[in-house]
Amino acid sequence: MKLQKLGVRDSTPAVRSGHRLVSVGCSSFVLFGGYMSHRVNGSEVPDLKQEIWRLHCPTLKWSKLVTTGAFPQSTASCAVIVYNNTIIVFGGSGSTFGATNSSSLHSLDLNTLEWSTIQVTGDQLEEGYGHSISINKSHLYIYGGCNGHHFYNTMHAISLADWKNKSYFRGHGGGKYRHESVCYKDNVYIIGGGTSTNVDDMSVLPYFNTTSNKWCQRELSKPAPIGRIAHSCNIINNHVYITGGHFTSSIEGILSQKVALADIWMLDLDQFVWTKLEVELPFGLFFHSACASSQNELFIFGGSTYVLDSNDEAVNSRLNTMFRLSIGVASLVELSWSVVSGLSSKEVLVDAGVPPFLLERLEIKA
Fold first, then answer.
1. Tens digit of pLDDT for each residue in 102-156?
2. Is the separation of the CB atoms in 148 and 98 below 8 Å?
3. Which tens digits make up the pLDDT trace of 316-361?
4. Which are the contacts of 280, defined by CB distance < 8 A and separation ≥ 6?
5. What is 280-302 written as a DSSP string?
6. Contacts 24+ apart (CB under 8 A), 251-255
7. Is residue 344 part of a domain?
8. CATH code of the domain containing 188
9. Residue 301 in contact with residue 290, Cβ under 8 Å?
10. Domain that holds residue 58
11. How many domains does the chain have?
């Protein structure tokens, strides 16, 4: 297992946090939104990233996409997922963070690069940010989030056939935000999360069964990761990988501890066992985003860390750094492709008999 820091290029997206990175096909990632702020005359001026970028994995080149239609206005801490070559975006907060929140569902057709607003019927969706999103079979599942004051505790199951929503309240446990969710078999597992002052115990795994539409939970093995929000979470086969995050606690409502985390953990969803990986991030990282590639790698982009200012006080610093974490061994096809794709022109690879499905990865589409 190897962690590598990739260089920042001229075309790399600017520093940000609260963005989302998702996989598109075998050769590309898409980066959506995010948030930055600048100090002007002693005051923080928000810089909402109303933009979308594509990373071409074989060349590690970024390109900013030019889209048509109504671009989502609330692009910080959205829930984002890919379905049938379409980017789906839910919720998020706007330039006045925590006050200008969205309950809209948007889609971007990656063939035409045109935005549309999806009209959802049925039970109402809450305005807010920090939700999780996942897909299992015929439904889109959106859970949790907050509006800056209230933390939601409802799973929304939206039919992909007619965009009708049915909501299922989780009766035990409080609401949470900046958790993550993954679908495995017939369950939507909720990984981590909490509120602005406390985090949930990660030795207990809540999940929603998509067959019975019932909430359940399971005790996990110990040791388990320290509770956290704003981590990244990705599933590869039957294993979930979480990287970094933010630990926050309070005593009688008074904030007592804020810690950026650098650890990386793996959860086996068949054995329900946590394993701490030997490799760690070089510094604590939170409000970043990560995505799994077809070569059993995690790409981790951006986010926030703490640095010391001139008064030796920890201040939030946003990044546009990318890390690549290799997990296990890729297939022989993927290993061979990783070697030859950067060494020869497309014409040479065609003459060598490289199959078309691999050659298509060399194309950087708009």
1. 999 999 999 999 999 999 999 999 999 999 999 998 999 999 999 999 999 999 9
2. yes
3. 899 999 999 998 665 666 666 666 665 566 777 777 777 776 666 6
4. 3, 262, 263, 264
5. --SS--BS-EEEE-TTSEEEEEE
6. 253/197, 255/197
7. no
8. 2.120.10.80
9. yes
10. 2-334
11. 1
pLDDT in tens, 250-296: 766 656 678 999 999 999 999 999 999 999 999 999 999 999 987 88
Residue 33: other Cβ atoms inside 10 A? 24
Residue 337's nearest CA partner among 316, 362, 312, 318 is: 362
Give this prediction's pTM: 0.89
Token digits of residue 254:
């008074």
- Quote the CA–CA distance of 195 and 182 in Å, as a whole number: 20
Residue 52: name the closest of 21, 94, 85 by CA. Answer: 21
Six-digit token pair at 330?
């890729």
Pairing between β-strand 105-109 and β-strand 114-118 as defined by DSSP bridges? antiparallel
The residue among 153, 233, 241 whose CA lies nearest residue 194 is: 153
Distance of CA 338 to the CA centre of its chain: 25
Inside any domain, residue 310? yes
Q: Determine, yes or no, domain membership for 354.
A: no
Q: State whether the Cα torsion 16-17-18-19 is positive or negative.
A: positive
Q: How confident is the model at residue 58 (pLDDT cuts 50, 70, 90)?
A: confident
Residue 268 lies in a domain: yes
What sign results for the dihedral spanned by CA atoms 68, 81, 262, 58? negative
Distance in angstroms (rounded) separating the CA atoms of residues 114 and 127: 24
